[in-house]
Design a protein that fits this description.
The chain is an alpha/beta fold and 368 residues long. It is built from 14 helices and twelve strands. 44% of the residues lie in helices and 17% in strands. Strand 6, helix 7 (135-139) and strand 7 (142-145) form a beta-alpha-beta unit. Helix 2 (16-24) packs antiparallel against helix 10 (196-204), helix 4 runs parallel beside helix 8 and helix 12 (231-246) runs parallel beside helix 14 (332-350). The structure holds fructose -6-phosphate. Fructose -6-phosphate binds next to helix 4 and helix 12. Homodimer.
């Protein structure tokens, strides 16, 4: 069943290009996104005033990325909440609110209960779900299925890239309905999304090199992760993977937050992964992240960078660089997750741990 791979997780990481490609299938025509599952909801989607995205763990990070994209492309305020926090704080929602839930299993009790709460309050509901016919999918007004295929390993990998793909498709669909993006601009974004599978396949070729680093770091007690914009949820995901698989203390930060506290954690030898934005683009956050790298490096941090191929500016300050093919800001997460997933998996394997079935965790959390 593992098809020659050492674990389901390794197999599922390798299946990520297909997970993205299959999620894109049948959802565009003539350079424009069209999601047939949302037919009949056009008026609703034109009329909504805000969006609340709900999910837990890795799915919530897909939601955070979705917020950046939907706000930028469709110009609607988006809030992201953890499903289990949402319904216990009397959230302000009504029939002009769209609740977009994200769940691989479609059975996560926290998310299901939050969706039910939203329905009671009169909100419209759409779910992004990887399991056909799952409870959350059935409860929602509409469902955008991710086509990642069954995910067996407890840690979510290919489902995440499929979720980000689906939320981007949704953002582009909404932008078209609401007229917030020019046709040309929207089709360039779609083309970039369609280019992800081939680019992601090249990122996966660095597996052996990442394994080497992970093995070498198998005694590490703490790892920090930094990113900005859509790279921030990538940092959070890198930390979550390391915690759940390798049982190592890890934290992800928005790089801009460093000087507001976390930089005090930096001491000589502290490993820090940094997700470096592309240097291209007028509004690139690249210079700011490079200056963060210089700040932590000056305090002795061991810098492990994920940067665009050809970006020479990080080389003088990084102890190790993993590269991703050039892509504009929104498409970097889809390429930058893989090195972090592989790192956590290989570090766990080096410690002799079961990467498919980490302690204390279940694949589908059907209790509150
Ligand atoms: C992390 C992980 C969990 C799930 C979370 C939500 O690797 O797998 O954080 O992402 O429990 O699960 P779903 O997406 O099934 O609702």
């Amino acid at each position: 069943e593992k098809g020659g791979w050492s674990s389901f997780m390794a197999k599922e990481i390798s299946e990520q290009p297909e997970a993205v490609a299959n999620t894109l299938l049948g959802r565009s025509a003539d350079g424009a996104v069209h999601i047939p599952e949302l037919d009949g909801l056009d008026d609703t989607l034109r009329g909504i005033e805000r969006i609340v995205i709900l999910g837990c763990g890795t799915a919530a990070y897909a939601g955070m990325i979705g917020k950046y994209a939907i706000e930028k492309w469709a110009r609607i305020p988006v809030e992201v909440d953890l499903s289990h926090e949402f319904r216990y704080r009397e959230p302000v929602i009504d029939e002009r609110t769209l609740v977009l839930s994200i769940s691989q299993s479609g059975e996560t009790m926290d998310t299901l209960m939050a969706v039910k709460y939203a329905i009671e309050a009169g909100a419209k509901t759409i779910s992004i779900c990887n399991t056909q016919g799952a409870t959350i999918a059935r409860e929602s007004d509409a469902v955008i299925y991710t086509h990642a295929g069954p995910e067996v390993a407890v840690a979510s990998t290919k489902a995440l890239v499929a979720q980000v793909t689906a939320v981007y498709l949704f953002g582009l669909h909404l932008a078209r309905l609401r007229g917030t993006l020019g046709t040309a601009e929207a089709s360039v974004l779609l083309a970039e999304l369609q280019a992800v599978p081939a680019k992601l396949a090249t990122v996966l070729e660095q597996h052996a090199e990442i394994r080497e680093l992970a093995h070498w770091m198998s005694d590490t007690r703490s790892v920090l992760f930094l990113g900005r914009h859509v790279g921030y949820p990538v940092a959070l995901e890198g930390a979550l993977k390391l915690k759940e698989l390798a049982y190592i203390h890890a934290e992800g930060f928005a790089a801009g937050e460093l000087k507001h506290g976390p930089i005090a954690l930096i001491e000589p030898g502290q490993p820090v992964f940094v997700v470096v934005p592309s240097p291209r683009g007028a509004d690139s956050l690249h210079p700011k992240v490079v200056s963060n790298i210089q700040e932590i490096r000056a305090r002795g941090a061991r810098v492990l960078a994920i940067a665009e191929a050809g970006d020479a500016s990080v080389l003088p300050y990084a102890d190790k660089v993993f590269t991703i093919p050039p892509a504009s800001a929104f498409f970097e997460p889809l390429l930058a997750f893989a090195p972090l997933q592989i790192f956590a998996m290989e570090l766990a394997a080096a410690k002799g741990l079961d990467v498919d079935q980490p302690r204390n965790l279940a694949k589908s959390v059907t209790v509150e």
